[in-house]
């Protein structure tokens, strides 16, 4: 049914993610009739909050997150479904009392013993919590039990394996929903549709017709208050291992035989398996890293990464990554996939540009005028849409051409109504659809690919840092990476 009924347990309910994404998403699901009113949410965290205080926080979060007026009475009755349970992650007793609360809520709200456990707290506790859930029998249910787990899923392959082994002792693979919120974005989901529902793209979607594919996910925000996490993570682990590689696999995968969860994920994992492994000795040919120094964004002075709190003066952490990925299979042999992502860049934007090869012969160019490239741009955010660049006759001219852009793009009005990624993914999880969540083998292959680069960078000191000013599109080496192959980054539009 489309109106699932369950008890949602959020570990880390006092945190930022719960406030900014989870509470507002659950509210929208509820308001739009995508959640049965037979539900309850239990917030779990270390702080000693009361139910009332927690409910106030939920109400505040819902108001803060909506652009439109929200009905205060609605939100208040929604917040009545929320309960707070203080706990100590290592103390079995707090799990025993949590179980009592959950059993009682099942009765109160007539929930058929379905439980969704959402891990939205420091990742070092994910494993411990899972084991405690088992020990205190919170996972012995008549309905379903599911685990939603936020990134980071480990910080390299060995740590991801340890975490996976721990949670697999309690949840089976099909009960584990590893969230990658990019997979909940409207236009990321659209990649598949654009490719597999359009004859004019899918026929050309290979190395005979495509010169390269460029994927940019730039952020204008700096690291802000996340210095502590980010200093240990860096852009490679924070964005590339998950969001960027997931988008690459959607762009590169073969058409699945149908759209079922396992068929789609099976095709995606094949892409990750065919990524050309880059050994540390060749890392510099394929990967560029950057760290921002002081600069300016929107006429505001931004201090350099090394001056951020909890970041060391000689930090070796990258806040920017550009890379050339090669997918060694029949479809993609020879076609570079260029990716770049970073903090404190010019704009916040996620965009994909597919650059088509030139025609075999140019009837219209002269020595110094060549035809414009055919480009298919998929705008993921902030605008959502696609643009197709093609050549037409320059009006009034004789044999001259000019590139034009055909645009289908949803800005402002429509965009506000796009459901938030989290809303969609939480609903998917409650109805048991794991298609837009990452399977263990996807995670494992991504780490395997990333680890040799991370190791190489760890051993290579960051004396060249900072190497791009805040407010730019990254270090010069990122442009050189494409120039070596005769390409350049297409501007963000
Ligand atoms: C998160 C990263 O996964 O994605 C953040 O940890 C990053 O560092 C964020 O800012 C970007 O997400 P979005 O949806 O704003 O593009």
TrEMBL record:
<comment type="similarity">
    <text>Belongs to the glucose-6-phosphate dehydrogenase family.</text>
</comment>
<feature type="binding site">
    <location>
        <position position="181"/>
    </location>
    <ligand>
        <name>substrate</name>
    </ligand>
</feature>
<feature type="binding site">
    <location>
        <position position="185"/>
    </location>
    <ligand>
        <name>substrate</name>
    </ligand>
</feature>
<keyword id="KW-0119">Carbohydrate metabolism</keyword>
<feature type="binding site">
    <location>
        <position position="46"/>
    </location>
    <ligand>
        <name>NADP(+)</name>
    </ligand>
</feature>
<dbReference type="InterPro" id="IPR001282">
    <property type="entry name" value="G6P_DH"/>
</dbReference>
<dbReference type="InterPro" id="IPR019796">
    <property type="entry name" value="G6P_DH_AS"/>
</dbReference>
<dbReference type="Pfam" id="PF00479">
    <property type="entry name" value="G6PD_N"/>
</dbReference>
<dbReference type="GO" id="GO:0006006">
    <property type="term" value="P:glucose metabolic process"/>
</dbReference>
<feature type="binding site">
    <location>
        <position position="238"/>
    </location>
    <ligand>
        <name>substrate</name>
    </ligand>
</feature>
<dbReference type="GO" id="GO:0009051">
    <property type="term" value="P:pentose-phosphate shunt, oxidative branch"/>
</dbReference>
<keyword id="KW-0521">NADP</keyword>
<dbReference type="GO" id="GO:0004345">
    <property type="term" value="F:glucose-6-phosphate dehydrogenase activity"/>
</dbReference>
<dbReference type="InterPro" id="IPR022675">
    <property type="entry name" value="G6P_DH_C"/>
</dbReference>
<dbReference type="InterPro" id="IPR022674">
    <property type="entry name" value="G6P_DH_NAD-bd"/>
</dbReference>
<feature type="binding site">
    <location>
        <begin position="12"/>
        <end position="19"/>
    </location>
    <ligand>
        <name>NADP(+)</name>
    </ligand>
</feature>
<feature type="domain" description="Glucose-6-phosphate dehydrogenase NAD-binding">
    <location>
        <begin position="9"/>
        <end position="190"/>
    </location>
</feature>
<dbReference type="InterPro" id="IPR036291">
    <property type="entry name" value="NAD(P)-bd_dom_sf"/>
</dbReference>
<dbReference type="Pfam" id="PF02781">
    <property type="entry name" value="G6PD_C"/>
</dbReference>
<feature type="binding site">
    <location>
        <position position="343"/>
    </location>
    <ligand>
        <name>substrate</name>
    </ligand>
</feature>
<keyword id="KW-0313">Glucose metabolism</keyword>
<dbReference type="GO" id="GO:0005829">
    <property type="term" value="C:cytosol"/>
</dbReference>
<feature type="domain" description="Glucose-6-phosphate dehydrogenase C-terminal">
    <location>
        <begin position="193"/>
        <end position="490"/>
    </location>
</feature>
<comment type="pathway">
    <text>Carbohydrate degradation; pentose phosphate pathway; D-ribulose 5-phosphate from D-glucose 6-phosphate (oxidative stage): step 1/3.</text>
</comment>
<comment type="function">
    <text>Catalyzes the oxidation of glucose 6-phosphate to 6-phosphogluconolactone.</text>
</comment>
<feature type="binding site">
    <location>
        <position position="348"/>
    </location>
    <ligand>
        <name>substrate</name>
    </ligand>
</feature>
<feature type="binding site">
    <location>
        <position position="151"/>
    </location>
    <ligand>
        <name>NADP(+)</name>
    </ligand>
</feature>
<feature type="binding site">
    <location>
        <position position="219"/>
    </location>
    <ligand>
        <name>substrate</name>
    </ligand>
</feature>
<protein>
    <recommendedName>
        <fullName>Glucose-6-phosphate 1-dehydrogenase</fullName>
        <ecNumber>1.1.1.49</ecNumber>
    </recommendedName>
</protein>
<feature type="active site" description="Proton acceptor">
    <location>
        <position position="243"/>
    </location>
</feature>
<feature type="binding site">
    <location>
        <begin position="88"/>
        <end position="89"/>
    </location>
    <ligand>
        <name>NADP(+)</name>
    </ligand>
</feature>
<dbReference type="GO" id="GO:0050661">
    <property type="term" value="F:NADP binding"/>
</dbReference>
<keyword id="KW-0560">Oxidoreductase</keyword>
């Amino acid at each position: 049914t489309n109106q699932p009924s369950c008890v949602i347990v959020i570990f880390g309910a006092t945190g930022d993610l719960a406030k900014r994404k989870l509470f507002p998403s659950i509210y929208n699901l509820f308001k739009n009739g995508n959640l049965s009113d037979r539900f309850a949410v239990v917030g779990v965290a270390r702080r000693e909050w009361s139910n009332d205080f927690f409910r106030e926080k939920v109400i505040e979060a819902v108001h803060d997150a909506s652009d439109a007026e929200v009905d205060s009475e609605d939100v208040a009755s929604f917040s009545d479904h929320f309960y707070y349970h203080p706990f100590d992650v290592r103390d079995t007793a707090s799990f025993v009392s949590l179980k009592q609360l959950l059993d009682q809520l099942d009765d109160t709200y007539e929930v058929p013993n379905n439980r969704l456990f959402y891990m939205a707290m420091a990742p070092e506790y994910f494993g411990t919590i899972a084991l405690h859930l088992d020990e205190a029998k919170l996972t012995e249910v008549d309905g379903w039990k599911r685990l939603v787990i936020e990134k980071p899923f480990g910080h390299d392959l060995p740590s991801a394996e340890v975490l996976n082994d721990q949670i697999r002792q309690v949840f089976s693979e099909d009960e584990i929903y590893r969230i990658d919120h990019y997979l909940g974005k409207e236009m990321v989901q659209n990649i598949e549709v654009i490719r597999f529902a359009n004859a004019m793209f899918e026929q050309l979607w290979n190395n005979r017709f495509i010169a390269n594919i460029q994927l940019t996910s730039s952020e204008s925000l700096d690291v802000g208050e996340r210095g502590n996490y980010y200093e240990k993570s860096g852009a490679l682990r924070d964005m590339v291992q998950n969001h960027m590689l997931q988008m690459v696999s959607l762009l590169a995968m073969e058409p699945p035989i149908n759209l079922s969860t396992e068929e789609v994920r099976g095709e995606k994992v094949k892409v990750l398996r065919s990524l050309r492994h880059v050994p540390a000795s060749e890392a510099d040919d394929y990967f560029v890293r950057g760290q921002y120094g002081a600069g300016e964004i929107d006429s505001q002075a931004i201090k350099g990464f090394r001056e951020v709190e909890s970041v060391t003066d000689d930090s070796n952490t990258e806040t920017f990554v550009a890379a050339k990925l090669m997918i060694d299979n029949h479809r993609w042999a020879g076609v570079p996939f260029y990716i770049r992502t970073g903090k404190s860049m010019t704009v916040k934007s996620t965009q994909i540009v597919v650059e088509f090869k030139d025609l075999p012969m140019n009837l219209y160019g002269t020595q110094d005028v060549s035809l414009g490239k055919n480009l298919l741009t998929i705008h993921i955010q902030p605008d959502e849409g696609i643009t197709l660049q093609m050549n037409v006759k320059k009006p009034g001219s004789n044999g001259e051409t000019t590139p034009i852009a055909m645009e289908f793009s949803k800005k402002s009005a429509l965009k506000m109504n796009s459901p938030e990624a989290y809303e969609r993914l939480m609903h998917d999880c409650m109805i048991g659809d794991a298609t837009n969540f990452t399977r263990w083998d996807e995670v494992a292959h991504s780490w395997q690919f990333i680890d040799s680069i991370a190791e190489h960078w760890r051993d290579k000191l960051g004396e060249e840092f900072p190497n791009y000013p805040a407010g730019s599109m990254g270090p010069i080496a990122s442009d050189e990476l494409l120039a070596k192959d005769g390409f350049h980054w297409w501007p963000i539009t």
